[in-house]
Write a structure and sequence with these properties.
- The complex is a heterotrimer of chains A (about 650), B (about 525) and C (about 110).
- Chain A is about 70% helix and about 5% strand.
- The longest helix of chain A has about 45 residues, at about 555-600.
- Chain A is mostly helical.
- Chain A has helices at about 1-10, 15-30, 35-60, 65-70, 95-115, 125-140, 145-165, 170-200, 205-215, 230-245, 255, 260-270, 275-285, 285-290, 295-315, 320-340, 345-370, 390-405, 410-425, 425-450, 465-480, 495, 510-530, 535-545, 545-550, 555-600, 610-630, 635, and strands at about 70-80, 85-90, 220-225, 225-230.
- The two termini of chain B are about 25 Å apart.
- Chain B contains 20 helices and two strands.
- Chain B is mainly alpha-helical.
- Chain B is about 70% helix and about 5% strand.
- Chain B has a two-stranded antiparallel sheet with strand order 1-2.
- Chain C has about 110 residues and is mainly alpha-helical.
- Helices cover about 70% and strands about 5% of the residues of chain C.
- Chain C is built from three helices and two strands.
- The chains are: A mainly alpha (about 650), B mainly alpha (about 525), C mainly alpha (about 110).
- Chains in contact: A-B, A-C.
- Chains A and C meet through helix 27 of A and helix 1 of C.
């Protein structure tokens, strides 16, 4: 059985290859035909999805076998002295899960875009980019070594840049795209350094080889103070995820990335690209495990901080997409600190469930936005449930899922994270997570109640979106409802996706109950404020104007960065430019001036008069004569007059 | 000193390939000289055909080079002045073959990038072809005399071309041309002194020679003090050419004032003569001198990278951005040379190739923009992707390659450099890598401000690039991505060059003396 | 100075030559007319001729085989011929300059100056 599965796994490379082929076809062949472009793209991604499902089933069938011995195929890609890199595919439960999630959300998004992007001039270009993105992301999750992962990581970043700036005639869009790329590049700097050090130390970047090298009695040597190599490498490698997965302080690009079309936000900035950082930490978990505990503690702390930080901002935002963006940041924080407290399983589980319900909510939001002709302020919406029942219902399912209400998917994964946080001895992080769960439920329900409940605004003429948009919503809602049940069976999620030894842990119902209560409290508070209006939101804001401003302006972090960039980086550039023109160039021009100046002076010796020249001639002869006749040393030895006798 | 290989293996049968590659542009040039000056179309076609022949031949050489055999192949050695030891010695190995190919790629594309020249067409293409032939000659020379000869041939046509067809912006084109030419000539003067000194030292026991491999084999004749001085002279000479800080000031003004084809060739290939010379002459022939000066030039290189990248941020003229950008990228090449190990050397040559292609693409796109809009001021441009989508694609490919996006050959080169240099020069390498952040900033800013944003009605009359203007885009785009996706084609070639040309042995000898770094 | 033992020897002729040469040299430096300068140059050349002949007479005044050494005389003849040629060319130049610029004053011949 495993042998047959193994043959199937050899074809895993097709999964990213098909969307890439689709990209090439659209870019070079079908550019002019909108219909053909989207057809090619969707066909490709659906094929990849089917392959991914097949592989997923194959993994499940292989049981424990696949966990111990992942199916790896490698081909030499770069081979020079001092640097040998392969390209390959790895099929293990983690990559199979990622393949399925990415392919599913990508397909849903591409189908959804048929409705959302209708009438857009750049239709073919959009689908080309979507295909390229799908290829890059799928390629990343089956990478066998860190460099291959990095290559696709950057390509994913490129697609994000292209898609955020898709409507490039908008200045805000092009600036947001630039910001995203540069912010993630700062993180990539650390990741690149980490990779270089890893290769230099271990001679390989292959995950399996590195894991083996670290696991076999590796002695770490201190390199900076008492900090060992591995810890330094771990911190450096983690810088990449800080940028890509929007951890504080490199989170600033994600809210701005909402400039892109909503399906793009759903796919890239909710379900797939942003989780690349989390995935990287999971893949390289052995590195963090062998580093000093400080590394994992740092990850946990940063993740928890990001979670509560973003959630606090979200409660004061008015743009529907921005709320969802900060919510994503917050949930990414959850995934990170889950890894930090030692539970790879919980983190990956939440990654999966979050992909479903967040993509769902983004797509539903997009449905609303299109129905209202690109209005995005929630206060201009209201009472939309009546006119848009499917959108409303699916959105509500998403809200329940993210608030951790059982039996929806979010409940299982969030609960597992919190349980592990407490059980592995991180009570503060647990508390933070719990409070953030409360906040999450609050702001999500705030969003839902304001947008879908209450009186309709007269100027909004809405109707339900077409099937191309609502079917993906329903499919994703299905997964948001039932996706969590993979935690239940004997060979549950944890059985397949885990690090180290597998222990079958029973679900801690007590703790689960507490987090459910927290969620329900949040929902209740939102209900009270926004539905029954028993507590007036304006009064609360009036009571704490300073805090409200701080939250609404995202703690002014963007302004701080802009100030730094403008004054320090650009200022330095201007200073150095001045230096280059006046000092370095000045020396060069100075040399030229000296040459010209001395020329001006010396040219006066050319009087043009014959007799002057004759005089100079004569005096030169006299001087030479004197030197020969009366000079000491070698010249005198050459004295021709000496040969005739005469003077000495 | 341990025994070094004296004579490298040669393949004698194909020895006429290189002379023909060199002659193709020269023959085309002679044909053009005899054409009447009104026949501009024919002139351009003849030039393009000449370069096409040359390109095909160099592609063939790349393809037919035997990796297993290694060393110098397609050699041709004709004694010229036997008493002085001057031979007309041509040949390519893994180090110079990518450079030859680069020259021909860029040369071919530059003909097409200059398709719309209307003033004095005949003279322009004559000079261009001489220039290209000269550059080719430096890379295929195996003899120091021939190398220097072609080097000198290269400098003069540029002066004339900038004076006549250049553009005046912050500085007049006369100033730019003068600065460019004289700066490089002064550099070559230092170089000449070094070369003569080397020649005399190598000929101390009789049997004088100019051949590179002979010069390298006579290591024991060069005292360490001599090597240090000679290498210092080469640093000044080649350093000026490769625009290492502080010898870089000719570069921004020079490129800005030059016509497109000249900028393409200059940024694309001429700077690489400097890097190539440092490796072939500096490190290969004077390794002790190289290892003495390595830390200093590494520091200067890092300064180049960061300094030029920050200045590029403050530029308002498109060509100046790319000019400073190329100074910055050459810093990486110099760090790699200073690291003195085979991996880094491979990375250096790869980076020269990759940057050459990228810079040529950038300059050709900018050239088209300038031709159509008559301005290079970034503030006046904007939203060009609306009117010229193909140009925007070319511009973006160049930009992405410049910031080292994986998938482009530039990433491979940069990564190899970092990998080779991090062991030996950790501090400089880390600072150099920080440069990629600034590169991303100015490249993306430039792209955003020039290509994206609202449609500007004053540019509505522009036509997109088409026909012959597409050649640079297609050619370079293909090379950039092909090299990025199948790196072994290029890197393997360079690898054989580094390992089989004796360079690896020389480096080993020198790097054993270097212990330290973090590992 | 003892004029009793005075006999005309080599140094006398050399002295005469030297005086003529100095006169000629002074003439070259100080005359303004280009023809006068040419004449002074002629004077210098003839002074050199005297030197040649004098040396030949006093130092090489013996027979070797059946021939006298006549190197100095031959040299003098050479100088005369060359001087003649040079004067021809020189005067041709002077006439051309005079036709073009209407002056023979060497102070005004400064067109090749800076």
């Amino acid at each position: 059985m495993f042998k047959e599965m193994h043959d199937l796994f050899q074809w895993a490379w097709l999964i990213p290859a098909l969307p890439f082929l689709s990209f090439l076809i659209i870019a070079f062949v079908t550019k002019r035909s909108k219909r053909l472009s989207s057809t090619v793209s969707i066909l490709a991604i659906l094929t990849s999805l089917s392959l991914a499902i097949a592989i997923g089933l194959g993994v499940i069938q292989s049981g424990a076998e696949i966990v111990e011995h992942p199916a790896i195929v490698n081909v030499n890609w770069l081979n020079i002295v001092g640097l040998e890199i392969d390209f390959g595919t790895i099929i293990d439960p983690l990559s199979a899960m990622m393949l399925f999630v990415v392919a599913l959300v990508a397909s849903m998004v591409q189908i959804y875009s048929l409705g959302y992007m209708r009438g857009d001039v750049g239709w073919s270009r959009y689908y080309a980019y979507q295909s390229l993105f799908a290829a890059s992301m799928l390629g990343m999750v089956i990478a066998t070594n860190l460099l291959q992962l990095f290559i696709f990581w950057e390509l994913v970043g490129l697609c994000s840049y292209l898609l955020i700036g898709f409507w490039y005639f908008k200045v805000s869009a092009r600036e947001a795209a630039k910001k995203a790329f540069i912010t993630t590049r700062v993180g990539d700097f650390g990741l690149l350094l980490g990779m270089l050090f890893l290769y230099t130390k271990f001679g390989t970047l292959d995950f399996a080889a590195l894991s083996a090298a670290l696991n076999t009695n590796f002695q770490d040597v201190a390199v900076i103070g008492t900090v060992g190599y591995v810890t330094v490498m771990a911190f450096l490698v983690f810088m990449g995820p800080i940028g890509k997965s929007g951890q504080f302080p490199l989170h600033v690009w994600l809210p701005d990335a909402m400039e892109g079309p909503t399906p793009v936000s759903a796919l890239i900035h909710a379900a797939t690209m942003v989780v690349a950082g989390v995935y990287l930490v999971a893949r390289m978990y052995f590195l963090f495990d062998h580093a000093s505990p400080a590394a994992l503690q740092f990850i946990a702390g940063l993740g928890a901080f990001t979670a509560i930080f973003s959630a606090s901002i979200a409660i004061a935002q008015d743009d529907i997409k921005r709320i969802l963006a900060f919510s994503t940041l917050s949930q990414l924080g959850y995934m990170m600190f889950a890894l930090g407290v030692g539970s790879l399983t919980a983190s990956m589980f939440h990654l999966m469930t979050h992909a479903f319900f967040k993509a769902l909510m983004f797509l539903a939001a997009g449905s609303v936005i299109i129905a209202l002709h690109h209005k995005q302020d929630i206060w201009e919406m209201g009472g939309l449930w009546k006119k848009m029942p499917i959108t409303g219902t699916t959105f509500f399912i998403g809200v329940l899922a993210i608030s951790g209400v059982p039996p929806f998917a979010g409940f299982w994964s969030k609960d597992e994270i919190l349980a592990h946080a407490l059980h592995n001895g991180h009570p503060i992080i647990y508390a933070v997570g719990l409070f953030t769960a409360f906040l999450t439920a609050f702001y999500m329900c705030r969003l839902f109640f304001v947008v879908f409940m209450g009186p309709e605004k007269k100027e909004n003429h809405t109707k339900e979106s077409p099937w191309s948009m609502t079917i993906p919503l329903m499919i994703l809602a299905f997964f948001s409802v039932f996706g969590g049940f993979v935690a239940l069976p004997e060979h549950n999620f944890a059985f397949y996706v885990h690090y180290g030894e597998f222990h079958h842990e029973p679900i801690a119902w007590g703790l689960a109950g507490i987090s459910v209560v927290a969620g329900l409290l949040g929902i209740g508070l939102a209900y009270v404020i926004y539905v029954t209006k028993a507590i007036s939101a304006e009064n609360v804001v009036a009571r704490f104007p300073g805090i409200y401003k701080l939250l609404k302006n995202k703690y002014y972090i963007d302004e701080i960065f802009l100030w730094l960039i403008h004054n320090i980086m650009d200022g330095l550039g201007k200073v150095l430019y001045w230096f280059d023109i006046y000092i370095v160039d000045g020396i060069v021009n100075g040399l030229a001036l000296i040459t010209r100046g001395s020329g001006k002076v010396l040219r006066r010796t050319n009087t043009g008069q014959l007799q002057t020249y004759a005089m100079v001639f004569f005096f030169a002869v006299v001087v030479i004569f004197m030197v020969f006749a009366f000079g000491e040393g070698q010249l005198a030895a050459l004295n021709p007059l000496a040969t005739l006798g005469g003077v000495k | 000193m341990s025994a070094l290989p004296t004579v490298l293996p040669t393949v004698g049968s194909m020895s006429l390939l290189l002379p023909f590659t060199l002659l193709a542009p020269l023959v085309a040039m002679l044909l053009i000289v005899f054409l009447p000056k009104e026949e501009t179309k024919t002139i351009k076609l003849v030039a393009a055909m000449g370069m096409f022949v040359s390109l095909v031949l160099s592609l063939y050489a790349f393809y037919a080079y035997k990796w297993a055999l290694g060393g110098m192949q397609f050699t041709l050695t004709i004694p010229w002045v036997p008493d002085l030891g001057v031979n007309l010695a041509l040949g390519v190995d893994g180090l110079s073959l990518p450079m030859l190919l680069l020259t021909n790629l860029i040369g071919f594309a530059s003909i097409y990038a200059s398709w719309n020249i209307d003033k004095r067409v005949k003279e322009f293409f004559v000079l261009l072809l001489i220039l290209i032939a000269g550059v080719m000659g430096t890379f295929i020379a195996r003899d120091l005399f021939i190398f220097f000869l072609f080097y000198e041939i290269v400098v003069i046509p540029i002066y004339i071309m900038v004076i006549i067809w250049g553009s005046t912006k912050r500085v007049t084109k006369e100033y730019a041309a003068m600065k460019l030419t004289i700066y490089l000539l002064i550099g070559s003067a230092f170089l000449l002194v070094g070369m003569v000194a080397l020649y005399l030292a190598a000929g101390a026991n009789g049997n004088p020679t100019f051949m590179f491999d002979q010069l390298s084999a006579r290591q024991d004749l060069y005292s360490p003090a001599f090597q240090k001085v000679a290498f210092a002279l080469m640093i000044v000479g080649f350093g000026s050419l490769i625009s290492m800080f502080p010898f870089h000031s000719w570069s921004p003004d020079g490129y800005a004032g030059a016509p497109t084809a000249v900028s393409m060739i200059h940024a694309g290939v001429l700077k690489k003569i400097g890097g190539y010379g440092l490796i072939r002459l500096g490190v290969y022939v004077l390794p002790v001198g190289a290892s003495f000066w390595a830390p200093y030039i590494a520091t200067l290189a890092v300064i180049s990278v960061l300094y030029a990248a920050l200045i590029a941020l403050a530029q308002k003229d498109l060509k100046y951005v790319v000019g400073y950008s190329s100074v910055s990228h050459m810093g990486y090449v110099i760090i790699a040379i200073a690291a003195l190990n085979p991996t880094a050397a491979t990375g250096a040559v790869a980076m020269m190739f990759a940057h050459g292609v990228m810079a040529a693409l950038f300059f050709s796109m900018i050239g088209f923009i300038y031709e159509k809009t008559h301005t290079r001021n970034i503030a006046d441009l904007g939203g060009l992707a609306h009117q010229m989508p193909r140009l925007a694609i070319g511009f973006m490919i160049a930009g992405m390659a410049s910031l080292g996006l994986p998938g482009t050959v530039n990433f491979i080169a940069e990564f190899t450099i970092f990998m080779g240099a991090i062991k030996v020069l950790p501090v400089q390498t880390i600072l150099g890598i920080a440069g990629i952040i600034f590169t991303a900033v100015y490249i993306l800013r430039t792209i955003a401000n020039v290509l994206f944003g609202p449609r500007r009605s004053e540019w509505d009359h522009l036509t997109d690039i088409r026909g012959p203007e597409l050649v640079p885009l297609v050619l370079f785009g293909f090379v950039i991505f092909f090299g990025g996706i199948f790196p072994n084609v290029l890197m393997g070639m360079i690898d054989t060059g580094v390992t089989s040309s004796g360079l690896a042995k020389v480096l080993e000898m020198v790097s054993q003396a270097k212990m330290g770094g973090l590992f | 100075m003892n004029l009793a033992n005075f006999s005309v020897g080599l140094s006398t002729y050399l002295l005469v030559g030297a005086m003529l040469f100095s006169l000629g040299l002074y003439g070259v430096f100080s005359r303004r007319n280009i023809v006068a300068i040419l004449m002074s140059i002629e004077l210098m050349l003839n002074a050199v001729n005297i030197n040649f002949v004098a040396f030949n007479r006093f130092i090489w005044n013996q027979k070797i085989d059946v021939h006298y050494i006549l190197t100095g005389h031959v040299a003098a003849l050479f100088v005369i011929v060359v001087a003649a040629a040079e004067v021809a060319v020189g005067l041709a130049l002077v006439i051309t300059i005079y036709r073009n610029r209407q002056t023979a004053n060497v102070d005004e011949f400064n067109w090749l100056k800076w």
